[in-house]
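Example 3.2
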Amino acid sequence: MSEFGEELRGNIRNDFSKHLHNIYGEKLAFLPVDVGLTVHLQSVEKDVRSHPSIINCTCKVACVYCNKFVTIDDADFKLYGNDHALYCVCKTCCESVPPDLLTTTLDKLYNSGVEIRVSDS
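Structure, written as tokens:
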């Protein structure tokens, strides 16, 4: 979900995507996105035996701090800067990285941007 910009400043994008995930999470996956979010799209599996309409998303997003890909459930999103840029930080980094180090990383990304990465896998 993106392109809400000025209309959904602050944590509204994140809260809105969580709310949609709670309602439709068994059929759809929701991510609040912004420029620089790295998503690893993997195969989508359908369990046709028990619930043919349920889709399990195996997509992962990259944490801007540790650069590891984590599941959507293990991702958290932090706001930074005047225009409320949204960055993915995994829950492990949110809990273990001191706030000043995380702020330094977000500041660098906000001012310099995210390096484009290409993966063969």
